[in-house]
Every structure is written in structure tokens, then in C-alpha cells.
Amino acid sequence: MDTPVTTCIRCGENMEEGFIVDFADNDNPVPSRWVPGVPEKLTMGGAAWSNKKCHGVRAYRCTGCGALEFFADAEPWAKPDKH
Ligand SMILES: [Zn+2]
User: Fold this and answer.
1) Distance, CA 50 to ligand 1 centroid (Å)?
2) Domain ranges within the chain, ordered by starting residue
3) pTM of this prediction?
4) CB 67 within 8 A of CB 8
5) Rounded to whole angstroms, how far apart are CA atoms 83 and 65?
6) Residue 47 Cα, ligand 1 centroid: separation in angstroms?
7) pLDDT digits (tens, 9 = 90+) for 15-65
8) Beta strands 68-76 and 55-62: pairing type?
9) Rounded CA gap, 69 and 60, in Å?
């Protein structure tokens, strides 16, 4: 996938690609994912969404003002979480 943004819409500075880290899996850092809809239920283990397709999330940070832009990958993850 091509880089969706290269310059900040607010200040015009360069955008740096990254991702948001999720520590929900036993403190093992994994990239956050986007899932459609709303959480089916909330438990001690977090939101249940086992039957939903999840997409990797790219986060772009402006090197000038720090603004963040988020984009979900077009293709779902090949191996969804086991939750
Ligand atoms: Zn900016």
C-alpha cells in the first residue's frame, strides 16, 4: 500500500509512518488493529471481537506539530487474534 499521507494537513510538515502499540497481550507489544462495528461485550480480557475482521492500523505523526493521522490497511490481518 502506498503511503497515504506525506505532509501534514495542518502545518505542511513531513509525516512520519509508525503504529500504535498495544500491550493487551500479556505485555507483549503488538500493533493495534481496527475492527468494524462496536465491541460485542467487555470482559476482564477486553473487548470480544473474534468473528470480526481486523485491519492493521498505520499511524502517521507530523514531525512539525505532532498531529496524528490513522489509516487502516486495505487487507485484513492474515492471522487474527485468538480472543
Ligand atoms: Zn503538522
Assistant:
1) 36
2) 19-35+53-78
3) 0.69
4) yes
5) 36
6) 32
7) 999 998 887 767 788 888 888 888 766 555 555 565 568 899 999 999 999
8) antiparallel
9) 5
